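INTERNAL AUDIT FORM
Audit reference: QA-55
Scope: verify that the stored structure record matches its stored sequence.
Auditor: D.O.
Record contents follow.
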Amino acid sequence: MANSQPLAFLGGLTAEEFLTEYWQKKPLFVKNAFPDFEDPISADEIAGLAFEEFIPSRFIFESGGDRPWQLKMGPATEEDFSTLKEKKWMLVVNDVEKNLPELKAITAPFQFISHWRLDDLQVSLGEDEGSVGAHWDDYDVFLIQGMGQKKWQISDAPVSEDDFIKGVDIRLIENFKADEEWIVEPGDMLYLPPRIGHYGINIGRSVTWSVGFRAPKHQEMFRDFIEMKFDDIAEDARYSDPDLQVSENYGELSDQALDRVVQVIQEGLLTNRDEIAKWFGEFMTEPKMYQSPELLEEKLSAAELVEFLDAGGALEVHPGLSLIHRQIGDSYYLFAGGKSYQLPVEQSGLIELIVNSEFLEFDDVEDYLEAEETSLLIVQLLNEGVLMMEEEE
């Protein structure tokens, strides 16, 4: 099995060993995890991403004085870059793989972790001594060194929300004490579980690629689930008590009244594993800002789709969306863009094909276009922007 094969980028550990011994437990540093690693885009191209309004970015400056650390949210301006020589700085850009799909090659080695857990690929660029400060994150991250060198320090000390430096726009650990330290070079990798204090300082111009894995907050999950259940309640449903009895104590909330309220709440929250699976699939594929699929202005028909593909066109999965799938009951579900699409279980092959492909050509979907249900799903995904049409080059 693939999970039992030693992986060089994990220091010779198998995926199973890594998940058992390190995942969300302790850090792992791997020297030369990715031999001959080169940044897939240049420093100038990374800087150029920061000018885009639809790509999340931020500058972090260390300038001394009363506010030693400052945060400047993107998009960047020419003035931002013109003043960089006066400061120690880092530029951090998120969601780069959603806007440059070819960069998904950096996240590909980590596919032994379920896709719904992947948050994004982040890249940071800075000159000598640039840093984002000592901090900790709420998610798992693999830090891959690109161009240049960097000094990474980590701390074993417990962290809490009270550890942050007051009066600073970013969450920085106030009393950071390093327990381990590495000088990393291109291709080196450091894995960090959540809530491990870490501090990276550039040595010369440096680029770091961060593959981050999200963990939704319990409050966020409960809020979204309750909102879903709320929508299932009829607007005109009200408290009722046709069997009301004479009150013996005017100001008392009686057991009978409370029993009715408990019944309303319990029935409103009544759920099962399949309903939770469908809700969670939609919840976890809700698109980020600027990544929502766009509806086609003119809806495409199945015949027009066949004509397009037969002429050499291809279908591309929207690069900004997370796609996951699951069987629920007698149906197989595709979750994308915060919505769910279903087919009979025996036609699940189409959904798995879409989830595991970036491009689909005529030969890939020819058989599915001949069946009504699968053909309609492909057309629906195109019309709703989950799939996009790519003209022949």
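Auditor finding: record pair retrieved intact. Residues 255-269 form the longest helix (15 residues).
Action required: none
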